[in-house]
Each structure stands twice: as structure tokens, then as C-alpha cells.
Amino acid sequence: MAAVAMLLSGCGGGDSGDEGNEIVLDFPSWQVNEPGNGDVLKAIVADFEKTHPNVKVNLYFVSNDDFQNQMVTRLSAGRPPDVIASGNHFFAFAATGQLEPLDERLKSSGLLDQWRDFSKERIIDGQQLALPLHALTRVIFYNETFLQQAGVTAPPSTPEGLRDAVNKLGAAGGSNFNPWGATTTSHSNLFGESNSFIVGMGGAWITDGRWSVTDPKTVAAVELYRELAKKAPPGLNGGQYRQLLADGKVAMSHDGNWVQSFLDDNAPADVLPKIQAAPSPFQNSIALVGTSLSIPKGISDERKQLVWELIETAAKPEIQALWAEKVYAAPGRVGVVPAELATRLPVVGVVEKNVENAVPEFPPSDNFRANFGEIEKTIIDAMMRLLTTDDPTMTVLTDLEKKLAAITQP
Q1: Under a CB-based contact definition with an 8 Å cutoff, are residues 41 and 31 in contact?
Q2: Which of 126, 192, 201, 401 could bond to 213 as cystine, CB 3.0-4.6 Å?
Q3: Dihedral (C-alpha) 334, 338, 341, 347: value to the nearest 10 degrees?
Q4: Rounded to an integer, what distance in angstroms lies between the CA atom of residue 271 and that of residue 243?
Q5: Could you say which DSSP state residue 333 is in?
Q6: So what's the pLDDT on residue 19?
Q7: Domain range holding 344?
Q8: How confident is the model at residue 11 (pLDDT cuts 50, 70, 90)?
């Protein structure tokens, strides 16, 4: 209780000092110290403070392990920070009922007319509760030298082409390199990786209000995911197989565009130029909503207006373009990525193409989101069963569907 009391009595969220010469806005984030993400957040604050000389933004770090619990505690107690940042934490924050709807402000500003459709991922019960600043997506990373050695003339652009390319890489690689990189140990990555195949190939966890884990498109997608993952090095998490890609020991993977930063930092100078990015080979790509900003209900009207002006600053074209330059992400605002940047950083152009046909990561189900922790664990267990046994895919998916139905109605 003492720890909670200290947390709630901490800086920000209150109105004390608002009548003085300086107002301090409390802005905690788990991303402050991250290269790229932190740089953009600091740029937002610096630009805002230039036009608000009597306002100081206290942007500070809270570890991701603690961030969600701390913010939920503060929101629920009516002592929130002034600026609510979120990633996948958004749904937990929205569940407190303490996020201010942005609809009227967004309508008056016209911002949504200039925003990508993934902004809809932050609508709850018909209300826009956050503005997503950018989105991430999955691309094909490939070592062009290995593709040439295998006789693959271009990166795959269809599921069938992907299967064929990986088979050719497997035949050509021998002991020199692995044809495919994927998570092959129990890890949260297993949900994202398998989900990208399912949604990408037109399948779905939920269809028309029913669990559709055993529908033909979902089964076909999981079959391909399983086939390729079994060609990946066993027992590795995401960081480990990405290191193999960086080292020139993995030929291809279907991974997040954010991995480019890892490759830039970790691939040897003679390997990095060989690793290229191509659009996802599936009919659908997934838009993984990145950093979003919200206004909490439990602050004064004056502070709400200031936080809105901070959000408007984050929406400026020149600030939005930084997400592409620093994080290789798709900015929320359309038309802000300079052609020069897409030429200089090819992965940025790939991400822009991917986002054009991007669909949401999660099905349109409040129950799925509300129970995601348990659902994710159950799906991960099923994927590990697929990777470590010879049980028929349909048997595993039938069992999975029964377990998901026992967790919640779709």
C-alpha cells in the first residue's frame, strides 16, 4: 500500500502549480531510452516546448515490465499522468474507462482525414480513444547471395512462391546456412509469427462471431507456417534466429520491419549489404499499431487542451516522417515519407507498400482483446505442439479451437 501511495502522489496528473509561471506535463514512456523510438518522442517534446514557453514536458522512463500496471493503477485511481502513451497496453488502459474521447478534437482538426485506416484500431465502443502515431508491419528479409545460389531469381511474392523458395534454399544450403528463420521455442513471438500467416493468407481466428480455427484457409496457413518453421534452426527465440540472419547463417525470414535496426547494428560489414527486404508474400499484411497517445479524463481542462496540442505536434508532417527515418515504420499520416528517404532506406519503401493492404492484427472481437493473455498462451502451446510433434495439423487445431471456446465466447 505504501508503494501505491508513493506512486499516486508522484509527479504529474495534478493541477498544482498550474496558476504559476510554468506547467509541467507528466509523460511517462517505456520507449524513452530506445534508439529510434526515444529519438522521435524527444523530438515531439522539443517541438512542443518551442511553441509553449511556459510548459515543460517531463518525459521519463518506466520499464515495460512495470508500465502497464503503473498506468492502470494511476488511471483507475483518478491520478493519471498527463500524457498517456501506449502500445498493446492500450486495451488495458481503455478498460479503465478513464481515457478521454478524441472524436470532437479530431473532427475539428481534420486530422483523421489525413490518417491511415489503422487509426480505427484505437476505437472502443464507437469512440476514438487514442491517435496511433505509426504502425509496424512484417516483411521478407532475405540474403540475396543465398537466393542466387539456390536459383531463386526474385524474393517470393505468393505463399506458393515462398514454399518453393524455401525448398530450393534448403537444397542449396547444406550445412552452410539454414533456409528459414523463425521462433522455434516457447515464446510470445509464436503468436505473431503464426498469426501473420493466418491473417496474411485470408484465414482468421474468428469469423462471423464464431471460432474459425479449423476453417480451410486457416488450416492451409498453419500448414505452411508449420512446414517452414520445421526447416528453421530448433530451440531458438526471435533474438537468436535474427542473429543468425545477421551473421549470414539464415537465408530468409518473415519478420517485423523493426528488425532492420537490429541488422544495422549487428550484421558484419560484409553481410549487411546482402540482406534485403521485400513486401510480405501474402494477400494481406498486418498493421501492428505502434505508439499511440491519449488524453486521460482525470486532469484539468487546461491540461487536456495542452495534451491535445502535444498530440497535434506529434501529427505534424515533419515529425511524422521521423517514424520512417528512425524506426523504419509507417507514419500514421499519409504522404509524409519523402521519396529520397524511401530510396535511401529501401525497407521504408517496402513498409509503405505493405501498409497499403494492411489489415488489423486482432479480429474484431472485444472478448478476444479482453482475454488476449490467456488466448495467446493457449495459441503458443498449440504452435509448439505443431513444431515438436507429428500430430496432424487438423487434430492440433481442433483441440485449440475447443480450448479457445472454453476461454471465452468469440
Answers
A1: yes
A2: 401
A3: 30
A4: 12
A5: B
A6: 55
A7: 2-136+288-360
A8: very low
Q: Of 189, 200, 269, whose CA–CA distance to 232 is shortest?
A: 189
SS3 for 303? Answer: helix
Number of domains observed in the structure of the chain: 2
| Residue 45 DSSP SS3 | helix
- 187 and 296 in one domain? no
Beta bridge partners of 60: 28
Mark whether 89 and 112 lie in a shared domain: yes
195 and 231 in a single domain? The answer is yes
Indicate which CATH number applies to the domain containing 10. 3.40.190.10
252 and 372 share one domain? yes
Q: Please tell me the chain's helix, strand, coil percentages from 3-state DSSP, rounded to the nearest 5.
A: 50, 15, 35
- Where b means 16+ CB within 10 Å and e means fewer, 284-319 reads bbbbbbbbbbbbbebbeeebbebbbebbebbbbeeb
Residue closest to 11 by CA, chosen among 60, 63, 73: 60
Distance separating alpha carbons of residues 24 and 15, to the nearest angstrom? 9
* Nearest Cα to Cα of residue 354 among 337, 340, 367: 337
- Whole-Å CA distances, 275 to 90, 106, 244, 254: 34, 41, 12, 13
For the residues of 102-163, what is the DSSP string, one character each?
-HHHHHHHTGGGGB-GGGGGGEETTEE--EE-EEE-EEEEEEHHHHHHTT--S---SHHHHH
User: Which of 321, 345, 360 is the last residue before a domain boundary?
Assistant: 360
Q: pLDDT digits over 366-379, tens only? A: 899 888 889 999 99
Give the model's pLDDT for residue 8: 43
Same domain, 147 and 130: no
Q: CA angle at residue 372 from 131 to 262, to 5 degrees?
A: 65
Of 360, 377, 392, the one marking the end of a domain is: 360
Indicate whether 242 and 389 sit together in one domain. yes
Which among 319, 265, 256, 316 is positioned nearest to 288, based on CA atoms?
A: 256
Cα separation, 320 vs 336, in Å, equals 7
pTM above 0.85, yes or no: no
Residues 6 and 151 in one domain: no
pLDDT digit string (tens) for 127-172?
A: 999 999 999 999 999 999 999 999 999 999 999 999 999 999 999 9
Instruction: Choose between 397 and 358: higher pLDDT.
Output: 397
Q: Are residues 269 and 145 in the same domain?
A: yes
Collect all residues with Cβ–Cβ distance below 8 Å to 65 and sequence separation of at least 6.
Answer: none
